[in-house]
Specification:
Blueprint (H helix, E strand, L loop, with lengths): L2 H19 L8 H5 L3 H11 L12 H17 L7 E2 L2 E2 L21
Antiparallel strand pairs: 1-2
Helix pairs in contact: 1-3, 1-4
């Protein structure tokens, strides 16, 4: 896993933890923030960065597994779903178009 992805995953795990602990419109208290442990965040990171996830290439089945994992965390934390509408109600997911481009030739240029 690349370092920017690790940082993003770490921030996301912290957000999940803080959302679960927030008890006022002003956000979580210092007590709630200090209750987050390295092992709690490490558990999320171990799963998301595991070989089982195969790097979570864009559009891969592992991307969907990671998304479902994060959505389950949001649900457990009591976050309001603000994504797409589904038959059962609003979801934590937002659809978007994805265009895949493949380079067929590789050229080098010497300057």
């Amino acid at each position: 896993m690349k370092w920017p992805q690790v940082a993003l995953a770490l921030c996301w795990c912290q957000a999940l933890s803080l959302a679960a602990l927030a008890d006022s419109p002003e956000g979580p208290s210092l007590e709630a923030i200090s209750s987050i442990t390295a092992s709690e965040i490490g558990g999320h990171l171990r799963f998301l960065a595991s070989d089982l996830m195969k790097g979570r290439d864009t559009g891969s089945p592992e991307t969907r597994v990671a998304a479902e994992y994060l959505a389950a965390g949001l649900f457990a934390a009591g976050a309001t779903p603000l994504g797409d509408q589904a038959p059962a109600g609003q979801t934590y997911f937002q659809s978007f178009s994805l265009v895949l481009l493949y380079r067929t030739t590789f050229e080098t240029q010497t300057i």
